[in-house]
Write a structure and sequence with these properties.
Order of helices and strands: HHEEHEEEEHEEH
Structural class: little secondary structure
Number of strands: 8
Largest sheet: 2 strands, parallel
Number of helices: 5
Strand content: 5-15%
Helix content: 10-25%
Shape: globular
Length: 342
């Protein structure tokens, strides 16, 4: 009888805890809304005791997750409801980490330990002086101290680095932050609800080319030799490296000469000022483009996870032909495709 009484008390205590957690979650929703926060049943991602339905076969896992680490949810063998980073078709904006049919070589992807990927070709230490990334690329993780997403704290792994991000409105683009946890800067932009699986005038990500909070500024934490007006050459002389975050057009310049849509999957552009820009607004297309607010960014040419092309490019670099179809490089350099020397 004593054991039964203790068990009942424990169950009641657990019910009270869950009730408190539920109403705390409701209060957060009431205060901040659910933009970019996960919705649905908690049990879709978590299990209380790691025992129901044989879940304990691979656990227990940190944070009471059904799967282990980022890959436990975000791969094809993870949770069906979560975005999959290793898909082989209908890819999201980040591309794919799939090593079987897509990013088959380590030059075609960012290799991360969380997905059991290792970098064999690069052994040098990346990053500029003071960079938070102070280890070689083969030690990258999805999140944390040496990852892309979440908090950047020394010694912090992916689970701890991303903890809390899924349960609150996303203050950054795809949980990306610049700098350390003591002085973080949010990467600006808005992610499309389907992770930009499809792209059209009314279905696209909003990328930022902000001087300090844009996507290129984030990439610059490691790839610091490819960024901005301060790079060798400068806008007044021939560039030695392709610039980013530089306005595509001067005042009065028209984009109507191009017959391509820069919003298209082959070469998206970013906004220097994303204020008021939404994922359903047609502000890229010929004739409506915001000329002095549009800029090339790192993701105009590359994808973040992996592609079937070298250097994570959106297209085959060797396949770009002068006087060819106005896509890829010629989406911006469109006059070269028409034989105009400009």
């Amino acid at each position: 009888m004593k054991e039964v009484t203790i068990k009942i008390k424990e169950e009641n205590k657990m019910k009270r805890i869950l009730t408190i957690m539920f109403f705390m979650a409701l209060s957060v929703v009431a205060m901040y809304g659910m933009a970019d926060a996960i919705t649905g049943q908690c049990s879709n991602c978590h299990t209380m005791h790691d025992s129901q339905d044989g879940v304990d076969g691979g656990g227990p896992n940190d944070l009471l997750l059904l799967g282990s680490g980022c890959g436990g949810c975000h791969t094809q063998n993870g949770l069906p409801s979560a975005p999959q980073v290793d898909k082989t078709s209908n890819l999201s904006a980040g591309g794919s980490f799939d090593t079987t049919t897509i990013a088959t070589d380590d030059s075609m992807r960012h290799d991360v330990q969380d997905l059991s990927l290792t970098e064999s070709a690069i052994t040098s230490t990346p990053g500029k002086t003071g960079s938070i990334l102070t280890v070689a690329p083969n030690a990258l993780t999805c999140a944390g101290a040496v990852g892309c997403h979440g908090k950047h704290v020394a010694g912090m792994g992916s689970d701890e680095g991303i903890k809390g991000s899924h349960h609150a409105p996303n203050a950054t683009y795809r949980f990306l932050w610049i700098g350390t946890a003591t002085s973080p800067t949010a990467v600006l932009g808005t992610g499309d609800v389907d992770y930009e699986v499809t792209v059209s005038d009314s279905d696209h990500n909003v990328y930022s080319a902000h001087a300090t909070q844009g996507v290129s500024s984030f990439c610059n934490q490691c790839h610091n030799q490819f960024h901005g007006e301060t790079e060798t050459g400068g806008p007044s002389s021939p560039w030695e490296r392709h610039p980013t975050d530089i306005a595509l057009f001067g005042s009065g310049t028209s984009w109507t000469a191009a017959d391509t849509d820069l919003e298209a999957d082959d070469a998206p552009i970013a906004m220097i000022d994303v204020t008021g820009k939404t994922t359903t607004t047609n502000y890229y297309s010929s004739g409506t483009i915001d000329e002095t607010n549009s800029a090339v960014m790192c993701l105009s040419c590359h994808r973040a996870h992996g592609t079937a092309n070298a250097d994570l490019l959106r297209w085959s670099y060797a396949g770009i032909l002068a006087n060819g179809v106005k896509d890829a490089c010629l989406s911006c350099h469109y006059k070269q495709s028409s034989g105009v020397d400009d």
